[in-house]
Amino acid sequence: MSSLILINRVKISTLVIILLGFFAMPSFAASFTLNLVRTSTLTNVDDAEGRWQFEGGEVYLGKTLIGYFVSKKRVSFGALLNKAALETTIILSSGDNNITFQGEHSFTTGNQEGAVSAASAGLSGFRNATVSGTSSELTFTY
Fold first, then answer.
1. Which H or E run contains 14?
2. Which own/partner pairs from 112-115 qualify as long-range (CB within 8 Å, at least 24 positions apart)?
3. Backbone dihedral angles phi then psi of residue 79, each to the nearest 5 degrees
4. Res. 104: pLDDT tops 70
5. What is each CA distance from 139 to 17, 76, 116, in whole angstroms?
6. Is the distance from CB of 66 to CB of 93 less than 8 angstroms?
7. Dihedral (C-alpha) 102, 103, 107, 110: value to the nearest 10 degrees?
8. Lowest-pLDDT range, 13-17, 34-38, 80-84?
9. Is 32 helix (H, G, I), strand (E, B) or coil?
10. Which of 5, 25, 29, 77 has a 20 to 30 A CA-CA distance from 66?
11. Which helix (H) or strand (E) holds 22?
12. Which of 27, 8, 26 is nearest to 16 (CA)?
């Protein structure tokens, strides 16, 4: 009976070691950074509940113009967080592919965080990628 208990303990210990090794394995994530250059005037539109902010411009990968962006932020006067809901769509120069991410913009730090919420068929591999950065430089990690 004691040898059976010992065998079960060895099996459980082995399973625990394998699972710990699996969860400790490094994750391999790819990322790329885009530079956004505003070419329109940042426009504020106030209404009874809050403020909309709109802007647009060019998108660069390194020094290469790859497309254009349209961004909108929604600030609620009722939320005292100094943050806005954010949605940015990037349309590639070909006009055939686009990617949209949603998240938040902090007016305190200027940082933006979120995730890709939609992408055209040509960019579907980036759906659910995380996005972080500022209004002028965004890193997509997938």
1. helix 2-24
2. 112/86, 112/138, 114/86
3. -100, 120
4. yes
5. 35, 26, 11
6. yes
7. -80
8. 13-17
9. strand
10. 29
11. helix 2-24
12. 8
3-state class of 9 per DSSP?
helix
* Residues in Cβ contact with 54 at an 8 Å cutoff, skipping those fewer than 6 apart: 40, 42, 43, 45, 70, 71, 72
Place of tokens 């686009």: 98
pTM greater than 0.90: no
Q: How many angstroms separate the CA atoms of 78 and 65, rounded?
A: 39
The residue behind tokens 């349209």 is: 70
CB 69 within 8 A of CB 63: no
Tokens linked to 96:
């055939």
pLDDT in tens, 60-87: 999 999 999 999 999 999 887 899 999 9
Q: What is the pLDDT of residue 121?
A: 92
Q: Which pair of tokens denotes residue 101?
A: 């991410």
Measuring CA to CA, which residue among 102, 36, 25, 44 is closest to residue 65?
36
Asked if residue 57 lies in contact with residue 69, where contact means CB atoms within 8 angstroms, the answer is: yes
According to the model, what pLDDT value does residue 115 have? Answer: 97
